[in-house]
Amino acid sequence: MVQEYQSPVRVYKHPFELIMAAYVRRFPKCPLIPMFVDSEIISESQSDDGCVLLTERRCTIDIEAPRLLKRIAGVDYLYFIQKNSLNRRDRTLHIEVHNETFSNRVIVRERCSYTVHPENESWTCFEQSASLDIKSFFGFESTAEKIAMKQYASSIKKGKEIIEYYLRELEKEGVTYIPRWTSTVDSGTVTWRHQLPPPSAARAIPVNSAKDGLHCKDSSCSAELVTGSPDDKLDADYIRRYLGDLTPLQESCLIRLRQWLQETHKGKIPKDQHVLRFLRARDFNLDKAREFLCQSLTWRRQHQVDFLLDTWKRPQLLQDYYSGGWHHHDKDGRPLYILRLGQMDTKGLVRALGEEVLLRQVLSINEEGLRRCEENTRVFGRPISSWTCLVDLDGLNMRHLWRPGIKALLRIIEIVEANYPETLGRLLILRAPRVFPVLWTLVSPLIDENTRKKFLVYAGNDYQGPGGLVDYIDREIIPDFLQGDCMCDIPEGGMVPKFLYRTAEELESEENRLLTDSIYKSASIYKGAPYELLIEITEASSVITWDFDVSKGDVVFNIYHSRRAPQPPRKETHGIASLGAVNPQLIDKSWVLGQDYSMVEKALMCREGESVQGSHITRWPGFYILQWRFLSSAACAASSMPRVDDVLASLQVSSHKCKIMYYTEVLASCDFRGSMTSLESCHSGFSQLSGTTTSSTISR
Q1: What secondary structure letter does DSSP report for 432?
Q2: Banded model confidence at residue 218, pLDDT cuts 50, 70, 90
Q3: CRAL-TRIO domain spans which residues (predicted)?
Q4: Which DSSP helix (H) or strand (E) runs through 369?
Q5: Is 238-305 a domain of CATH 1.20.1250.20?
Q6: Is there a contact between 422 and 284 (Cβ–Cβ < 8 Å)?
Q7: Beta-carbon neighbour count of residue 42 at 10 Å?
Q8: Which class is domain 315-498?
Q9: Please, what sign has the CA dihedral across residues 228, 230, 231, 234?
């Protein structure tokens, strides 16, 4: 497996020429890097005007490895070839490194560059990328890979320190300024000054702009940012200031996942804090975090969670009887949420409001928590990416273990765990009664192990003593109902009057409405069992329009026409039980293509993550069948180039199942204005899922 590394942009607040003077002092050897034993110049050449200097070195490296491994390999040192290209006019230094030792077994590539900061010509930027591919190493491939990654990570951390060390040495010698390069032309001297690139060509390194972003108050700030571009760069100081101290390899995972999203994700790019949470939840395993994050982004888009805080209005009953709310912050600066669960009538809330309303309430709390973390990061001047939750169980009894209530709680926990990882910094459970172990047994299996480690449980009044609440919350903001001095305006809850309860039929009807309040519907496609949708057309020249997103797997989209009415669909028994119920088939197996039905649009292959919109003007009345069929990997083998979409496909839990969410509508010819732009203006929900439309029959 190829290991890759990509550094953030590291900014030196010194001119390029001074950085170069410090850089050359690293050679031929550097005492600050013991593993860098020596180096020698193999070749050196310079352009006639002295502008470009090309230097090739052979570097000797002493890797810290077990003696036995060195004896098996038969080497004491490793040799690398370094090629430097210095352009004094453009003020750039590009470095390429590859291994000379074991080059037939191991491939090591490294690229570094020093360039002028795009917004300040007196500063210098440094970027670094590398790859390691161990094809064979005497049966010790895994060990060699671990040693190499460890050594490389330690050398990365020393890189900036070394430059800064030699800058201090230059300062001690009185060298604080080096003039820019000048070119001599004939008898005269022409002085060339560096010109900054136009704004459109500058790389967006979020040094100051990142701070401004924390002031954002609109709904789009919850977990996502404006659409990014592949040219966006992450600054190392920005990472440390707003995301925290990360190891070099953790920084690399963040940057690579962010770049992957910029290249493949359609729509808004998640904020760096949000991406980092998913990486932490998967221990910085890039493939697992990528799958985890993509599933959550699909969920957010499907349910329009980004607009929840601005579009959803809490019912008055919820405001009166839901005993929870935000209350200042803990000693670490985390936003503090207090939930008086023991005073809450969970059964009454479920019976009066339904599971979906409570789910949206919890989602709105999490969305608000994300906002408050960003605000506290700005206020306290340090990264704050999670909040503290205080749960008061005083009053908890068997009524809270009502089965439908537990069912609602389990579903809410499952959704929160899947879409808000690493957002809970600490959970303080106070005044836990004897019934609490029963509740804990029910819910703990659904809670991630890392999250469970953040739970602190206090029985009775234990929270008042040493090691209790005062260790985590300042005494002056402890709520009055916990014997503190701070008045807390969180509702006290209480019993929901039974006359507000709704019948099971009303709750079912309400929940169905909430579950389908999006105009989009979801469908699953199985291998050998396509999903088919029947549309009856009574008037020729009617227009069938569609818009669908492929949220999982790859599919083939077809449109068929038949003058015969399909028989009532029947569900067939499928041989693989894990696939569940198979889609009912409208096209009978006895039908012959070209006789009983015909294809009216060319088959369209749709990749995972793609949004497809299109329209078809019907030529005849009859029955039209929209079909989405599973696209196997064999059908995709025509292209030899690997695709990022194929990477996602390989990560799916089931390789024989695809998912789509779709919307269709039939328009009379007089209502169709001939472009997808006009359709977008008629249906605002369309533009919320796809930011691009074209006037073609089918667009992506």
Answers
A1: E
A2: very low
A3: 314-490
A4: helix 355-380
A5: no
A6: no
A7: 12
A8: alpha beta
A9: positive
pLDDT digits (tens, 9 = 90+) for 304-355: 888 889 888 999 999 999 999 999 999 999 999 999 999 999 888 988 888 8
Contacts of the segment 405-408: beta carbons below 8 A, 24+ positions apart: 405/346, 405/347, 405/350, 406/442, 406/443, 407/355, 408/346, 408/350, 408/355, 408/358, 408/359
Helix axes 403-419, 346-353, angle to 10 degrees: 80
DSSP for 641-686, written as a single string:
S--HHHHHHHT-S-TTEEEEEEEEEEE-GGG--SSHHHHHHH-HHH
By the 8 A CB rule, do 454 and 422 touch?
A: no
Please report, as a single letter, which amino acid is at residue 64. Answer: E
Name the token pair of 304: 């329009």
Give the DSSP per-residue string, 234-256: -BHHHIIIII----HHHHHHHHH
- Which residues pair with residue 43 across a beta bridge? 56
DSSP class of 227:
P
> What are residue 507's phi and psi, to 5 degrees?
-65, -40
Identity at 112, one-letter amino acid code: C
Dihedral pair phi/psi, residue 377, rounded to 5°: -60, -40
Q: Do the Cβ atoms of 72 and 102 come closer than 8 Å?
A: no
Exposure b/e, 551-583, CB count within 10 A at least 16 = b? bbbbbbbbbbbbeeebeeeeeeebeeeebeebb
Q: Give the whole-angstrom CA distance, residue 241 versus residue 229.
A: 22
Residue 301, phi then psi, degrees to nearest 5? -70, -40
Q: How far apart are CA 426 and CA 434, in angstroms?
A: 22
For residues 195-200, average pLDDT: 36
Kindly report the CATH number that applies to the domain delimited by 520-688. 2.60.120.680
pLDDT above 50 for 644: no
DSSP 8-state assignment for residue 517 = -
* Domains of the chain by residue range: 2-173, 238-305, 315-498, 520-688
User: Which amino acid belongs to residue 635?
Assistant: A
Copy the structure tokens of residue 307.
């607009």
| Cα–Cα distance measured from residue 300 to residue 235, given in angstroms and rounded to the nearest whole number | 28
Instruction: Give the pLDDT confidence score for residue 73 in this predicted structure.
Output: 78
Q: What is the pLDDT of residues 220-244, one digit of tens each?
A: 444 443 334 444 678 888 898 899 9
| Helix (H) or strand (E) run with residue 623 in it | strand 622-630
Residue 26 corresponds to which amino acid?
R
C-alpha angle 417-419-420 in degrees, rounded to nearest 5: 70
Among 353, 452, 339, 453, residue whose Cα is nearest residue 396: 339
Q: Can you read off the two tokens belonging to residue 236?
A: 């190392």
Partnered with residue 424 across adjacent β-strands are 387
Most confident segment among 134-143, 284-293, 490-499: 284-293
- Let me know: does 223 contact 368? Beta carbons within 8 Å: no
Q: CA 575, CA 113: separation in Å to the nearest integer?
A: 57
Query: Mind listing the pLDDT tens digit for each residue in 105-152?
Result: 999 999 999 999 998 999 999 999 999 998 888 888 888 888 888 878
Tell me, what amino acid is at 151? Q
Q: Which fold has domain 2-173?
A: Alpha-D-Glucose-1,6-Bisphosphate; Chain A, domain 4 (3.30.530)
Burial 101-127 (b: 16+ CB within 10 A, else e): bbeebbebebebebbbbbeebebbbbb
Q: Is pTM beyond 0.90 here?
A: no
